[in-house]
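Chapter summary example.
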Amino acid sequence: VAQSILPAANCSNVDPVALYGGHEWNFQIRREGSPVGMHKLQFHTGKDGVQVIAESKINISFLGFSAYQFDYRSESLWQNNTLMKLAVTVNDDGDKTGLDVRYDKAANMLVATGRDGKLTLPVGIFPTNHWHCGVLGQIQLLNTITGHLNKINIRDMGIEKIIAGNGGESRIDATHIQYYGELHTDAWYDADGRWVRLAFKARDGSQIVYRCLTCIQTTKAVR
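The structure predicted for these 223 residues follows.
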């Protein structure tokens, strides 16, 4: 599926440091068009595999006071493009939750421990962190915020020009992917399989968009 959606991308064997052109990939988070936070990805290659850190910080103010805060951090370890370990902490405006996923060699399964107890997951499951385009070949994902498995369908919406960069002056070509089923999200990838945009509806119905800042350094911007 991933190959047919992104024919030029290698989504089965991703080296994120090479693919993303370095160790960091940044997004500006916007709510109804206004900046409210940042999302940062960091990639580190070591002897144990590839470590990926994803962090989101959102702070929405109203009349000069903080009306809503959201902090998210996940650390994952990947070996041969397979998730082996994941630790997530979430502070959703004071509601703190966590998720811990570890590979059980004896059972050849992943064991997830979260707010609802333990859950066994098949090896090869992808979390909802979006950076690995192999996610486009999946029928279920591990929701890193809720700790639940979400059954998904993926719809290819075609190539679009999307806004990128800090001032929003740059446009890049990206394939629009729509997730539906138990997860409703829109994600965009460039031709090489880099994640370059995200959009979804927040609980209050507002539109949240992750606008890529780093991608105009590694992809040719069309003005």
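To summarize the output: The chain has three helices and 15 strands.
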